[in-house]
Amino acid sequence: MVREVTAGVLRVAYEQHGPVNGPPVILNHGFPYDVRAYDEVAAILAARGCRVLVPYLRGYGPTRFRTAQTPRSGQQAALGSDLRAFMDALGIGEAVLAGYDWGGRSACVVAALWPDRVRGLVTGLGYNILDPAMADTPRVPEQEHQGWYQYYLHSRRGELGLEANRYEFCRLLWRLWSPTWEFDESTYARSAASFENPDFSAVVVHSYRHRFGLVPGDPDLEDLEAELAAQPQISVPTIALFGADDSFGAPKLRERRFTGRYRQIDIPGAGHNLPQEAPRAFAEAVNALL
Fold first, then answer.
1. Containing H/E element for 243?
2. Per-residue pLDDT tens for 69-90?
3. What is the pLDDT of residues 97-155, one digit of tens each?
């Protein structure tokens, strides 16, 4: 059942599993996915007595901005602020945070800036906080090729293309990033319904333009963005997950940013959508931090 709570600038839609008095775990989805990525993970953790919360990110599913005046920002400070506000709204002082892609970024932001709120962190692709100082630094051609969709969204053509073809665009990313995952059309369609949110395109386009310095961010988040630009360390116990078949896998170069207990796990046969492709391994990582 979908629930809603007022949290900061959003009315956040979320799903809850397990006993309400269990240790809280918050599972954060990425782009272009949604809460359905965690169906099996949530069931496993709920059966072990956890209170499992799975929110829809800004711009996804039933989550809505509370006012028309709030910038439809997709910047990393917004994602982290949303997650902290969600915890505040539900009275959760401390939780295990888990995520991948955008969801891993939001979890890393909270762990870095407000470590007292994080019992443990599971993050797909490791340290997920963007480094704006590196935005203009070229990578090797193969890695540049992987970022084609980001450069596409920098253009007016890409903005219009996402708006007109969001179903096909996001399905293509699913296929490219998880080349060995044989998902069927109904599995994709269940998540793609979340992309019909009226703010989806605006939030996505802003995210990929802001990280390259092409558009300004939300003025209310400038102080947080400045803190994140310093690439803060993460001191909470962390497990970093990497899918062996992830065609968009980031280079593992910034693991020195983790200063607390840290473990890296490579998951064979899994691509980018880790919790949906390898739910038991993902759940075991969360359970290890409880």
1. strand 238-243
2. 999 999 999 999 999 999 999 9
3. 999 999 999 999 999 999 999 999 999 999 999 999 998 899 889 888 899 999 999 99
For tokens 């793609």, the residue is: 192
> Phi-psi category of 106—alpha, beta or left, where left has phi over 0 and alpha has psi -120 to 50?
alpha
Nearest to residue 207, comparing CAs of 164, 125, 252, 149? 149
DSSP element (H, E) containing 81: helix 76-89
Q: What is d(CA 196, CA 190) in angstroms, rounded to the nearest whole number?
A: 11
Compute the distance between CA of residue 106 and CA of residue 187 in angstroms, rounded to an integer: 25
Residue type, 201: S
DSSP state for residue 257 in the 8-state scheme: G
What are the CA-CA distances from residue 13 to residues 16, 35, 251, 269 (Å)?
Answer: 10, 10, 33, 32
Closest CA to 13 of 110, 82, 72: 82
Q: Does residue 228 contact residue 130 with C-beta atoms inside 8 Å?
A: yes
Q: Rounded CA gap, 176 and 272, in Å? A: 9
Rounded to whole angstroms, the Cα distance separating 197 from 99 reads: 21
The percent helix, strand, coil of the chain (3-state, each to 5) is 45, 20, 35
Measured CA to CA, the distance from residue 222 to residue 224 in angstroms comes to: 5
Both tokens of 212, joined, read 């390259």
Q: Token pair of 87, please? A: 């915890």
Query: How does 147-161 read in b/e, with b if 16+ C-beta sit within 10 Å?
Result: eebeeebeeeebbeb
Q: How far apart are alpha carbons 124 and 142 in whole angstroms? A: 21
